Amino acid sequence: MVMFWVAILAVSLLLYVLLDGFDLGVGILFGRTGDEARRHAMLSAVAPIWDGNETWLVVAGVILWGAFPAVYATLFSAFYLPLLLMLAGLILRGVAFEYRYKTERMRWIWDASFAGGSLVAAFMQGMTVGALVEGLPITNGQYTGGEFGWFSAFAVLCGIGLCLGYSLLGACWLVRKCEGDVREEAYRLIPYLSAGLLAFLVIVFVYALAENLRVMHRWLERPYLFFFPAIGVIAALVAAESVRSRRDEVPYHMVALIFAAAFGTLAISFWPYMIPFSITIEEAAAPHSSLAFMFWGEGLFVFPLMLIYTVISYTVFRGKVRPTAGHY
């Protein structure tokens, strides 16, 4: 039962990163253009599915709360401020999504809110991951780092890196969903975003070696982890070729595969810890009776229904977006 909930949590987090990642990326790129027609097309590319994407974050939070309460309590103690800012960013962009169509004179405020909320949410998520990789100050299962124990140069670097990664994912989504100027501009951005992401990965690797982060030792202990970077390299090469030949459907799937490979690398690097090198899966798990009780709700109904809903929504709203006169 414990492994069941670990698997469900991993799938929920990965789906959130892949799905909400691209619409956060579109939000970040949204701030680059002042052309209303382009902005309208960009919003139309994510309008039918953005709120469903964010639901996977709620699913992951519920699983942590019910199945791994020790991790839930520790993470919220450590990341109270960044999680609050992340949620504020997600709320702001959701409100801006609707309000920008209700006003003309003040539309610039909601446009800035949509782009800014997307940027803040992505940056805080990256900082959270960076702080976990670097290691949190935890003593006897309790967070002891204070309000800013999560803050470091490495965490900031990871925040910037995730913004670049989400922007790349968003650009690939725009290539897949849009036509005309928006598609061509996304194609022009992809090489620059890819170069920025590559530079980020090199800097992170050098930093980890220089600081002798504990996660690097796992790579020596578990050489099979290099399987995931190999997948990422192959996906990057296929993505580069598809961008060169203008195959609209391929880049998004390849970048999503790179994200999945990075997620798999981190997950197995930290195994069997849920909070790296501090709290293991067995230590974090709720009693078996609680896990079994959750199975009949979250496990048997909510999670499968969410998967079905996601598949149906992406099937119904497949293909290129078309200009509309009304609300997205």
N-to-C span: 43 Å
Radius of gyration from the alpha-carbon trace, in angstroms: 20 Å
* Main pleated sheet: 2 strands, antiparallel
Contiguous uncertain segments of 5+ residues: none
Instruction: Name the strands of the widest sheet in spatial order.
Output: 1-2
Overall geometry = globular
Name the average pLDDT. 87
What characteristics describe this protein?
two-stranded antiparallel sheet; single chain; mainly alpha; 328 residues; 3% strand; 13 helices
Written description of the protein model:
With 328 residues, the chain is mainly alpha-helical. It has one domain (2-210, 287-316). The chain has 13 helices and 4 strands. The strands form 2 sheets. The chain has a two-stranded antiparallel ribbon. A hairpin with a 3-residue loop joins strand 3 (273-275) and strand 4. Helix 10 (227-244) packs antiparallel against helix 11.
Topology record:
Layout: H1 2-30, H2 36-46, H3 50-67, H4 69-78, H5 80-99, H6 107-134, E1 138-139, E2 142-143, H7 153-177, H8 180-211, H9 214-221, H10 227-244, H11 250-270, E3 273-275, E4 279-280, H12 281-284, H13 288-316
Antiparallel strand pairs: 1-2, 3-4
Short summary of the structure?
With 328 residues, the protein is an all-alpha fold. The protein is built from 13 helices and four strands.
